[in-house]
Each structure stands twice: as C-alpha cells, then as structure tokens.
# Entry
Amino acid sequence: MFHIACGTCHFIRYMQFSHDNHHLSLTELADYSKISKFHFIRLFSEATGRTPYQYIQHRRIERERLLLMTTKMSVAEVGATVGLFDAPNFSRTFSKHTGLSPTQFRMQSS
# Structure
C-alpha cells in the first residue's frame, strides 16, 4: 500500500509542477504506479477526494485563474497555455467551475 500511495504522491507533485500536463495519459500514470488503470483511479480518488480527471481540471482552473490575474495574456492564450486550445471550450469550462467567464473573472480581479 505504501508504494501505491507514493505513486499517487508522485503524480500529484508532477501535476503541481508540470506546465505540460494536458498530455498525460491515465494508462501511463497507472503503468508508472505499476497498477491497473481502474485501481489507480480508485486509490487516487481515495487519496485526493477527486478522480485524476477532476484533479487535472481543478489544477487547470487554478492555473487559469492565476494567469488571468497576473498576466496580460489574452483569454485564448491562457486557455492554450493550460491545454484548452478551443476558446469556447475553455470559456465554458472556466465558467462552469468559477461561475464567471474568464473576462468577467479578470475584470473582478483587477
């Protein structure tokens, strides 16, 4: 069990410091942890309270919020930076999680 928990910790650390996390594969992460994909999802969810997908989405939203507050990047550039290259999809996802469009969020943050 310790090895599996460490695998989850490594994944979380990687997600926190990776700027290119939109290319991660669940199969690759499970292989890295040396367990099945379904077992990885279950253990990851137990450790974090979120599925790997939910965790990635949460981290992206946090990074998007930071970029919108601290840079002059366009909304499309912010989306592309975090791996959401389709501007309408980025805006929809951001709004779903924050209750504000990226533009509204930026205006309220300044």
